Amino acid sequence: MHIPDGYLSPQTTVPALIVMSAIWYLAFRKVKLVRNQQSIPTIALCAAFSFVIMMFNIPIVGGSSAHAVGAVLVAILVGPWAAILAVSTTLIIQAFIFGDGGVLAIGVNCLNMAVLMPVCGYAIYKLISGASALGSRRNLLAIFIASYVGINIAALATAVEMGVQPMLFTSADGTPLYGFYPLRVTLPAMMFVHLLFAGILEGIICTLALSYVVKFAPHLLNQISKTPNDAVASSWLSRNKTLIITAVLAICLTPLGLLASGSAYGEWGLEEVQQLIGYIPRGMAKTADLWHAILPDYSLPTLGEGAIPQSAGYILSAIIGVSLITGLIFLTNRLSKTGK
Amino acid sequence: MCHKEFIPEWLLNNERSSSYSAPQRLNFLRRSINHLSKIFNDEIYFSRCANLKGFLQAIDPRAKLLITVVFIIIINLSHQLTIPLTLLAITLVYAHLSKVSLSKLIKRTWLIIPVFILVCSIPALFNTLIPGKPLLMLIAASPNSNWLNHGLYISDHGLHSVTMMVVRSGCSLSLVYLLLTTTHWNDLCKGLTLMKIPVSFILILTMTYRYIFLLANCALQMNEARFLRTVGRLDHRENRRFIGHSMALLFIKSNYLATEIFTAMRARGFSHKIVSLKSLQLSKIDYIFMINNGIILLILLAWSKVS
Question: Is A197 on the interface with B (CB under 8 A)?
Fold first, then answer.
């Protein structure tokens, strides 16, 4: 999952590095608030731990083996903000010392494996485990699902980042300048392996490791994961649990719209208006081309035709829409609070 | 030269080269041991090279880091082969002047990741993905065929795209490898402090690098002990349980270690500052190095615009 240099354009890697700098700054502030100076050796040791566990080979079938990423495990053990810093440090050292992942691609790799993976994994873990006891069946199931989904989200992000390159960066004659595989190749290539094998393996290993810590050193898990910082995160999640579950369910059900025929009342296009009333109003014809939607008809042209790509387009559009609206509401809320 | 090593080669080699063949089911342990011992091999090799009296070893880490990053950016922005290949030639000249083994550099940076990228990129060579002028026709065009009516051939654009990707990746890796073999990690981190990078971040980078070896040694011992004591045939479930538990044990150890390290740091008067015995200062040679490389880049960019 480590993207090397040369595969992504600097127009992708440099903005990712800028975004990561902001996330690192935020993470430093959050971790410092909780642990003060002691945070430095704790994060350093966590990073070293994260580095070493990536070196462990896990048996699969026959004589073959693979390695785990362990970012969700680190997030559950030490909290999501500390995990962002620890896994990022690991990825930086890997890029410099071992050539695993490019130096320019550090931002993108950190975004995938040090932010998306541990943060999403941790949120899912908190959402599913709720108030269940550590080591209980529900708790262990939460760890498994969180690790499985976490690694798949990171793989999905990697596939999208690689897959959009030929759409965005081509020469005048259409030759791709960087990555040449489109989304229809990168998505199945990455997701097939991660959904069927890597995700399950990651889930099993994280569950085994966590169950061991819970059994033999539960005080460590309690001590670290019940920091004030995490308490805020868990209370936010538990407060909004119903809302989040409803939103996720609603997003998953959006492809149901495909079953309906025709357009919704009042959402007619120019052709439908002409069919209905016989002509196109002049003002409507003039303004129709002013705005071209980013995702026309809730679909991505690169995904192609068919029920599954269309459903994926609907879900993707729903995720983008919900994220944008939620982001705007949060921003307004924050601005109104600071304004006071 | 780096190959004049005071630790004999056989001591740096792992058991892979020995005649003993372990059961196939223990391959995962053998691979873990190989990966973990590679960390130590690399560190010994890097620090030995960085201690040599060569050209780049005498340059300030900041100047080297700056030139490496600028070179990598230029390589990744270029769309013609001339720029990355010229910069690679310069890298190899610098490596030779810095007494870094060229064969090791090429083996380490060009024979693993670029080869993997090349293998993954083979489908992109053909006109089915990137159309262009045919260079090597494999299946002749037949207008009557529904499938491959343009034929199947290696296109010029496909070959160019794949070559660019492999060359960009290999050149970037070579530059980073040269930086690491001619600079101690601590000096590099010290250089970052002087470049106004936050102290906390550099402290974490320095400490992580130091404690990776300690934890890697713990992990290595766990794996070796298991490898030597395993008799008979264990199923994968049991082996996976061992890996999961090893990770957990490592976390418990690292957690205790973090508390002890913090206590030791406080006992020694830790004041959130990086103290180094070396004082880094940009000298005349560093400025000449940066200006020379800047001129090389300007000439290259101007030349690529003209051609």
Answer: no
CB contact under 8 A, B42 and A98: yes
pLDDT value at A153 more than 90: yes
Q: Do A55 and B32 touch (CB under 8 A)?
A: yes
Euclidean distance between CA atoms A118 and A113, whole angstroms = 7
Angle at B130 between CA B125 and CA B132, to 5 degrees: 95
Which 77-136 residues of chain B touch chain A by CB within 8 A? 77, 79, 108-109, 112-113, 117, 121, 124, 129-132
Residue A105 near residue A13, CB atoms below 8 Å: yes
In this structure, are A212 and A296 located in the same domain?
no
3-state secondary structure (DSSP) of residue A59? strand
Residues A293-324 pLDDT 10s: 656 666 666 666 666 677 777 777 777 777 77
Chain B positions in Cβ-Cβ contact with residue A61 (cut-off 8 Å): 236
B 11-70 near A (Cβ less than 8 A): 24-25, 27-29, 31-32, 35-36, 39, 42, 46, 68-69
Residue A285 belongs to what domain range?
255-339
Question: Quick one: A220 and A132 in the same domain?
Answer: yes
Q: Which residues of B touch A89 (CB under 8 A)?
A: 204-205, 208
Each domain of chain B, given as residue ranges in start order, spans: 23-306
* Structural domain includes residue A126: yes
The answer to whether residues A63 and A195 belong to one domain is yes
Q: Are residues A201 and A263 in the same domain?
A: no
Q: Which of B208, B214, B246 sits opposite A56 (nearest CB)?
A: B246
Number of domains in chain A: 2
Query: A43-47, A98-102, A168-172, B140-144: which has the minimum mean pLDDT?
Result: B140-144
Q: Mind listing the pLDDT tens digit for each residue in A126-138? A: 999 888 888 888 9
Whether the predicted interface score ipTM is above 0.90: no
Alpha-carbon gap, residue B120 to A33, rounded angstroms = 45
**CATH, residue A98:** 1.10.1760.20
Is B217 an interface residue toward A (CB < 8 Å)?
no
Rounded CA gap, B242 and B26, in Å?
Answer: 12
Residue B17 belongs to what H/E stretch?
Answer: none
Residue A245 lies in a domain: no
In a domain, A143, yes or no: yes
Same-domain check for residues A199 and A328 = no
DSSP-assigned letters across all residues of A127-176:
HHHTTPPTTSHHHHHHHHHHHHHHHHHHHHHHHHHHHTHHHH-B-TTS-B
- Quote the CA–CA distance of B243 and B186 in Å, as a whole number: 32
Which residues of chain B are under the pLDDT cut of 70? 1-26, 144-148, 272-278, 306-307
In a domain, A326, yes or no: yes
- What's the pLDDT at A227? 45
pTM of the model: 0.77
Chain B CB contacts of A206 below 8 Å: 244
Question: Do A173 and A65 share a structural domain?
Answer: yes
